[in-house]
Amino acid sequence: MDYTRIFLFAFTAYCVALAVEWISWRRVSDTDRGNGFHGRDTVNSLVIGIVSKATRPLEGLFVPFSFTLVAAAWTPIHLPADRWWTWAIGFAATDFCYYWGHRADHRMRLLWTAHSVHHSSEQFNLSTALRMPALMPFAVFLDNATLAPATVAGIPPSVILFWQTVTLFFQWPLHTRRIGMLPAPIEYLFNTPSHHRVHHGSNNPYLDKNYGGVLIVWDRVFGSYAHESDPVTYGLTRNIGTFNPITTNFHEFLAMLTDIGRAHNMRTVLRTVFAPPTAPIRSAITPHTRSDEHSSTSAHNTVQRDRPSNTVDEALTGLLAHHLEYR
């Protein structure tokens, strides 16, 4: 399958849709026009997107192997790629793995340093879809690892790659405020612009919600679903206040490195890297600093106490917290 040709066709369609969305905002009242696009913000998103795509081969030099291919070589289960039910199972398995990988992007500080780039725009339009991190090989490496369970279950790598591509293209048009609620059955089963607006919200009750790729049912099952009701505030809970693409791309990664430099022991370093972005790290601060402050300058830290608790995330990070918490 020629994925390059598919990408070029999809990208052309995306550019047309972006132009249509911009024109649609220009036709509304003056009071709303500024809420659709901001010129410098849009340019920032496009520059980051282009650099991210251009530097992806360089990231491949740091990640010389694929977890998917390694898992395919070792698994004793191999489903036939020429059967329709393999493709159906592959879709469900790939989307399920995407959900957990995306959730990890928000719940592990190291991954959030990369994923926060995508959430850093205070606008929400189709240009936001291109704002993806560049030169973050560790993110590519770990995100690829989240698909390994699908391969271990016997899904051929070619099927996983196909559904990965579908998920990517499916989410591009979700980054818009110009499409309202869709019919109830679609809203219940699938990720929609409304659900994805919630995901990009930095205000409660929307923070860290709606991780689904194509299906939203995973969020409903695992307790991370939120319905769009109140107005959504886009961006980070502590916005970076710049349109510089270099700062936008590396601001949270540098913040994590700063916190690592302030850490007093290896336990704190590990917690800084692998715990959720909002986790308090008391041993990483000076003795004269209030103990309820947080080590991270991450966007999420300013809402630590207001963040809704989630028992699933607590279970997944509990073991790590037990070993790494400063006492």
Rg (C-alpha, Å): 20 Å
The biggest beta sheet is recorded as: none
Q: Give the strand content.
A: under 5%
Global geometry: globular
The share of residues in helices is 40-55%
Order of H and E elements: HHHHHHHHHHHHHHHH
Structural class: mainly alpha
Distance between the termini: 55 Å
SS element count, helices: 16
The total of beta strands comes to 0
Mean pLDDT across every amino acid position:
83
Low-pLDDT runs: 282-309, 321-327
Describe the structure.
With 327 residues, the chain is mainly α. Helix content is 55%, strand content 0%.
A few lines on this structure:
With 327 residues, this protein is an all-alpha fold. The protein is built from 16 helices and no strands.
Secondary-structure topology with pairs:
Layout: H1 3-26, H2 30-33, H3 39-54, H4 56-62, H5 67-74, H6 84-107, H7 109-115, H8 137-145, H9 148-152, H10 157-171, H11 184-189, H12 193-199, H13 217-222, H14 245-262, H15 266-274, H16 311-324
Which tags fit this structure?
mainly alpha; 0% strand; globular
